[in-house]
Amino acid sequence: MAKLKLAIVGYGKMGKEIEAIAKERGHEIVSTIDSNDNEAQFKKINEESLQNVDVCIDFTHPDSAISNVEAMSALGVNVVLGTTGWYDEMNRVRSIVKDTNIGFMWASNFSIGVNMFFRIVQDAASIVNSVPEYDVAGNEIHHNQKADSPSGTAVSIAEILVKNISRKKKIVYEALNRQIKNNEIQFSSTRIGNVPGTHSVLFDSQADTIELKHTARNRGGFALGAVLAAEFVNKKKGFFEINDLMDNLIGDN
Questions:
Q1: What Cα–Cα distance (Å) separates residue 123 from each residue in 129, 130, 165?
Q2: In angstroms, what CA-CA distances link 120 with 58, 214, 215?
Q3: How many Cα atoms occupy the beta-carbon half-sphere of 173 within 13 Å?
Q4: Percentage of residues in the chain with pLDDT exceeding 70?
Q5: Is residue 236 annotated as part of the catalytic site, yes or no?
Q6: Which H helix or E strand runs over 155?
Q7: Domain map of the chain by residue range?
Q8: CA distance between the termini of the chain
Q9: Where are the beta strands (DSSP E) in 110-169?
């Protein structure tokens, strides 16, 4: 495995966790960038802060995600983007990656366990698709500092459900003050305390309930996935998603 020179953009709790895991795996953190953290080496993304950097790992804020990608890609540096809440700008980011000819990977959640959970949910939804007696719903819980709701992970899970259960056509994220329609899935969000993240899917019938749940104990799983993504995207060109990394790790199952 090549030893990378990494820049961490966003030096909060996640950024510091990424730094620790990257160092454990033998990588060098040559730059930490955060305009709001006094411990960061740099305030801005520029030639100085990205000098000799192989890959940038960005966990910042939805409001800055696109401008950060523009700044990093303009300097020819590959990017791992873990920030959520920017997905309505997906086509714009694809264009940036293509125009600047960098390597780029994004995920709604970089936890390897969560991405295994995605595949488990997909398989379960495909089974439930054949059994119309079962309804489906989801819920996610995150810490009270999280900037977006629903989370990117919740959106990914809900979209997997709709894609694989043909009788469900629409996702409802907001509170319902009416009876839910048969073709809708409600996916609710809760914000409390310091919870790193819990995501649940319920399949319910008159006879029983099947529950699938992923509970994050800490940020380590997310940070490891981001570092593995940086290892994957290093020296590559093009637009990649987390499934490209998962296929590389466990095969196209």
A1: 10, 12, 11
A2: 27, 11, 14
A3: 15
A4: 99
A5: no
A6: helix 152-164
A7: 5-110+219-250, 112-215
A8: 24
A9: 135-142
pLDDT of residue 252: 60
Question: Residue 105: what residue type?
Answer: M
Domain spanning 112-215: CATH superfamily: Dihydrodipicolinate Reductase; domain 2 (3.30.360.10)
Decide if pLDDT at 253 tops 60: no
CATH topology of domain 5-110+219-250: Rossmann fold (3.40.50)
142 is catalytic: yes
| pLDDT tens, position by position, 202-216 | 999 999 999 999 998
Distance CA(50)–CA(121), nearest Å, equals: 39
Looking only at the bridges linking them, the beta strands covering 209-215 and 198-204 are: antiparallel
Quote the CA–CA distance of 250 and 129 in Å, as a whole number: 26
Catalytic hit among 27, 142, 199, 214: 142
User: pLDDT above 90 covers what percent of the chain?
Assistant: 85
Tokens of 88: 């309505």
In whole angstroms, give the CA distance from residue 77 to residue 54: 6
Residue of 13, 16, 146, 237 marked active site: 146
State the pLDDT at residue 233: 97
**pTM score above 0.85:** no
Instruction: Of 94, 38, 98, 104, give the one whose Cα is nearest residue 72.
Output: 104
